[in-house]
Automatic annotation (TrEMBL):
It holds the Pfam family B12-binding. Residues 2-147 form the B12-binding domain. It comes from Citrifermentans bremense. The keyword Manganese does not apply. GO terms for molecular function: 4 iron, 4 sulfur cluster binding; catalytic activity; cobalamin binding; metal ion binding. GO terms for cellular component: cytosol. Residues 183-412 form the Radical SAM core domain. InterPro entries: BchE-like, Cobalamin-bd, Elp3/MiaA/NifB-like_rSAM, Methyltransferase_Class_B, rSAM, rSAM_horseshoe, rSAM_sf. The keyword Iron-sulfur applies. Keywords: Iron, Iron-sulfur, Metal-binding, S-adenosyl-L-methionine. This is Radical SAM domain protein.
Length: 467
């Protein structure tokens, strides 16, 4: 087998389009293994089925890799599954080609057998695919391909656990993805400095997708990737998309000191920072290295809820982190999951009070209800409480919301309690046309990022946006 077509199926652009970093990583690994690879990114395709038809007919692949980033939008108030669109795509692929097919991605890793059954496919990869995908497609016989570690067969189950390595293939994302399309909507490229997570938050799936321990890339390799992307794409802003940027201890310092040592002239942001153990020295180092914004994920500002979620830190640490960041030049977006176990009027009131004390340069992203995934502590709790049934498929969205509160009461507390709702972002608002317009305008006018800082303006110009 020589020719493999990689298809990134994600077409969601809210709250912002996500560069298919994982799919590009696997494509590069297949290329380095000697396969001829073509990459099809459907994110901005107005006619995705026509695009797939055209590429399959022209490229005539012997292997097809399908990447599924997310199963759904994880929105309790307006759930949407992405799988029906993928199923339609798969049906077209099967009509056009008898190529050996492998499906993977973060979404697939959570429920591989259920995904295969729904899509009518036979083979999936669990976890990262840099080693599994090349081995699967290069195997002379299908029987041998099915024995590759991490490959799940619909009829054969999971014969071998996935291979998790600390040796990373250089992703070379800009070689596979038309980064100009993404930079045209938000001028930031993703960078991953490590994989895995040693934490055990009640609801989280990171350790299932990336492994149960930290696997760190060489800081020099990460910085070289940034410098290469700057030369090749002209990008000057990068977001570290690690599961938790300030863990394990010492990692943040090694990476940022390497950025300073090599004199990188770029702006940086972080997609997930923990309040746990944050120090003034770390905040100052982030500023010196060019960190301008971050997303911090306490999920609550109340001890009872934090403990129930298994966050591993206290509300005192949340307030300490807020104090440190408020005294810096870094903008922070605080993320909260409202409605989890042990949530009550008292805990919601504490979170609302915390949001009201944030400085004007900071905002809050608030979701209600928590998506239930199999194998998590939240799933076990949901089974005990009868929220879901033992034989219930979680392929389509199922959510946990505490019995101590009603959704109506919770929304009233949030909407009436927050003193300035224009500084709060709710999931539905990220799909609004006004925010998309402001994002494009921001790129055109070269306004400072992150663009979530302008969500309040989008809300104000929306019908009914002023309180």
């Amino acid at each position: 087998m020589q020719r493999v077509l990689m298809i990134s199926t994600n077409s969601e652009t809210a709250p912002q389009p996500a560069v298919p970093l994982g799919a590009a990583w696997v494509a590069e690994a297949m290329r380095l293994s000697g396969l001829e690879v073509q990459f099809l990114d459907l994110c901005f395709s107005k006619k995705p089925l026509a695009a797939v038809d055209r590429v399959i007919r022209s490229f005539r692949p012997e292997g097809i890799a399908l990447s599924i980033r997310n199963l759904d939008n994880c929105d309790f108030l307006a759930p949407k599954s992405y799988l029906p669109a993928v199923k339609e795509l798969v049906e077209l692929v099967r009509c056009l080609s008898d190529a050996r097919t492998l499906v993977g991605g973060a979404g697939v890793s959570l429920m591989p057998l259920q995904v295969l059954e729904y899509l009518g496919l036979d083979h999936a990869v669990v976890g990262e695919g840099e080693r599994a995908a090349p081995a699967f497609f290069r195997a002379a016989r299908l029987a041998d391909a099915c024995q590759v570690p991490g490959v799940v067969s619909r009829r054969g189950g999971m014969p071998k656990p996935p291979h998790l390595s600390s040796q990373f293939v250089p992703p070379r994302t800009h070689g596979w993805v038309d980064t100009r399309r993404y930079l045209g909507l938000e001028p930031v490229l993703p960078v991953q400095g490590k994989r895995g997570c040693a934490n055990r938050c009640l609801y989280c799936t990171y350790h299932k997708v990336e492994g149960e321990g930290w696997r760190i890339r060489e800081p020099a390799d990460v910085v070289d990737e940034v410098l290469s992307a700057m030369r090749q794409t002209g990008a000057r802003e990068f977001e570290f998309v690690d599961s938790v940027f300030n863990e394990p201890p010492g990692y943040l310092e090694l990476l940022l000191e390497e950025i300073l040592r090599k004199g990188v002239r770029a702006r940086f942001s972080v997609s997930s920072l923990s309040p746990k153990g944050l120090t003034v020295e770390q905040v100052r180092l982030m500023e010196r290295a060019g960190m301008t914004s971050l997303v911090i994920t306490p999920e609550s500002a109340a001890d009872a809820t934090l403990s129930a979620l298994g966050k591993g830190f206290t509300e005192a640490e949340v307030h300490r982190a807020a104090e440190l960041l408020s005294g810096s030049s870094i903008r922070a977006l605080w993320c909260f999951l409202v409605g989890g176990p042990s949530e009550s009027e008292e805990s919601v009131a504490k979170t609302v009070s915390f949001v009201n004390r944030l400085p004007r340069k900071e905002s809050a992203y608030i979701t209600t209800g928590i998506r239930i995934y199999p194998g998590t502590g939240l799933h076990r709790l949901a089974l005990e409480e009868g929220v879901v049934e033992a034989d219930q498929s979680l392929l389509h969205p199922a959510f946990y919301f505490t019995r101590e509160l009603t959704l109506q009461k919770t929304m009233e507390m949030l909407q009436r309690g927050v003193s300035d709702t224009c500084r709060c972002i709710f999931p539905a608002e990220t799909r609004g046309a006004n925010l998309s317009m402001l994002r494009r305008l921001g790129v055109l006018l070269r306004l400072p990022t992150p663009f979530w800082r302008y969500a309040g303006y989008a809300k104000k110009i929306s019908p009914g946006g002023r309180r």
